Amino acid sequence: MRRRRWLYGAVAGAATLVGAGLAWREKQASQQPAPEDALWPLTFAAPNKTVVNMQHFLGKPLLLNFWATWCPPCVEEFPLLDRFYRQNISKGWQVLGLAADNLADVEQFLQRVPVQFPVAMAGMEGVALSKALGNLGGGLPYTLVLGSNGKLLQRKMGRVTPDDLMQWTVLS
Asked: Which of 18, 28, 30, 83 has its CA 20 to 30 A from that of 45?
């Protein structure tokens, strides 16, 4: 009988410790800033000689696309992203292309493939930024969907599809 009580007590004690550990871990995780929080204070130079302030995009859903002119899937999806922007701007959607590239190549590309959404220069630091935002391999294109509250809703490595865009419109 004593052995049984001791066993019950040990099991109850272990369960209490596990529960306390899980609660502590959850509390620690909730206190950590989300990776996308580091994005909002940033500013980027734009090819048109203006400055793109990320704070400007808070309050509306944002499709953020990391791309480069030397990336074939990036170049292929650019007209699709522009069409998405034009079709959804009236619904509050924003699109920003962050180029992990050099200014001269981006300017030349935008002359051939003009888009209505803003494009900004992240340079090669853009790859590091995309990694901090979940792009573990550092490949391009890399697209994020951020809600109007600035929180990450979706991420996509590789070229986006019309189906991706259609599904994302309901996330905001």
From this structure: 83
Task: Give one DSSP letter per residue of the chain, joined into a string.
Answer: -HHHHHHHHHHHHHHHHHHHHHHHHHHHHHHSPPGGGGTTT-EEE-TTS-EEEGGGGTTS-EEEEEE-TT-HHHHHHHHHHHHHHHHHGGGT-EEEEEE-S-HHHHHHHHHHS--SS-EEE-TTHHHHHHHHTT-TT--S-EEEEE-TTS-EEEEEES---HHHHHHHTTT-
Reported pTM: 0.81
Sequence spans of domains, the chain: 2-32, 36-168
- Render pLDDT for 48-65 as a digit per residue (tens, 0 to 9): 999 999 999 999 999 999
